[in-house]
Design a protein that fits this description.
alpha+beta
Length: 211
Amino acid sequence: MAVYSVTQKYLTDNYAVVVLLTNADPLEVGQSVTIAGVDATFNGTYTVVALPQFYFTGVDDQGFFHYDIEAPIANQVLFAKTADNVNVVAASGTLTTTPSCTWVTTDAEVEDWLGIGTATAADQTFITQCRLAANEFAYRRRREAGYRNESLSTVPNPSVLLGTVAYAAFLYKQRGSVTDFASFDGLAAGGSMGLSPMIKQLLGVDRPAVA
């Protein structure tokens, strides 16, 4: 969960805009946000319609949004709100969002990689936890490596998908072990502390991304 401070607000043609103190990264169109502490008109839970970089001036008869390109305003969040127009004014309050990455959408993808099925309900729950953790981890590591503006809901490419599935399987196989996979053959299991080179390669995080 991330919480951002609201500094300004306005409403035009049944679309409201709040201006944030800082960039709400990685907020994207279609995400749900909750606004609180602004006022009775703006408070509530909404779906992000646009993240404009210029002053929003309204909607034409064809439904197209119009902006004043001579009035740049950073860190704006626009959402539908049926209410009377409100001129730009200073505001306080917060915008809260809980971004969630869904690159790997089913537990079956992880089970197929492992080549096993779940034995118990608790086992199924743990695979789900591994999948969710892998999604968030893969997205975060790619952003840290320099990949920007990637969708939380659409995986960038098959390589990243496989890397995310493999990492979820890694977490599952590491169950009951502190630093590595459990070993049953009496030999050392090896020292794969951190990400394996294969997973790094698939995720594209073995080196920073370049333009």
